[in-house]
Amino acid sequence: MGDFIIWLRQHFLQAAAAPRYIQLATTIETAIKQHVLAVGDFLPPERLIAESLDVSRVTVSNAMKLLDEKALISRQQGIGTRVAMHIGYSLNQDHGFTAQVLRNGGSVSNQWLLRTRMVAPADVAKALELASHSEVVKLRRLRLVDGNPVSLETTYIPPHFLPDPEVLEHSLYALWQSRGIVPEGRHFRLKAVASTDDIAELLNVQSGMPLLRIVQTSRNAQGEVLEFSETLCRSDVYEFEVNS
User: Are 83 and 76 a contacting pair, CB within 8 Å?
Assistant: First the structure.
């Protein structure tokens, strides 16, 4: 953060003649585009920026408002201001989350919370069209883009479609493709929900922050249910696209 303040002071003084808040917003935008600040990096507090550049807090606040309107930063009360991250995700494409993010130049990783077999809860067995008390595979993982948590995914799968869940490291769809398993039909239900304390801690957001809850059911060409999943997505990161 100290290095960025030095960079900001040097480049802010070189900015073109314009209102001070526009100069400051332009300088910070340049820092983001030149990767002086990386996605997810926190900006220094507004007070520190104002003191370092000898400008008013109003000037800094107006600059941040401009950057926020351009969706270049994300401001969360009690957490801070950081460089915004955006994921364009199409629900129409057959490619999974990993493939779509990689195509857009991001890096994807998982923080696995659970990879196990268990007796299916009644609602899960019904969704997977299995008999009561059937065994299922349960996966729970944090999805990270460029090292930042963006969603929490819980997935249930009939064991014959993933007999060895511990071998899954990255893309479920890529693993399935290598085994000749192809999702042919997917159904989504979307709903806005508030983040609970435990989910907020996992996703590194403020408790109560709006999340997008996606419940997905996927089938193969034979009509068998491949997966039943719930994904909680950060509303400040995801931008969904659906074509009719």
Answer: no
* pLDDT bucket at 205, cuts 50 / 70 / 90: confident
Together in a domain, 110 and 196: yes
Helical packing angle, 57-69 and 20-33, nearest 10°: 50
Structure pTM? 0.68
Name the residue range of residue 12's domain. Answer: 2-83
Which residues share a beta bridge with 161? none
Task: Tell whether 144 and 229 lie within a shared domain.
Answer: yes
**What does the pLDDT look like over 79-106, one tens digit per residue?**
789 888 766 555 555 556 666 655 555 5
Token duo for residue 82: 């950081």
Structure tokens at 196: 């609970």
Question: What is the domain count for the chain?
Answer: 2
Is residue 120 within 8 A of residue 135, CB to CB? The reply is yes
Q: How far is CA 202 from CA 6, 73, 93, 122, in A?
A: 32, 21, 28, 27
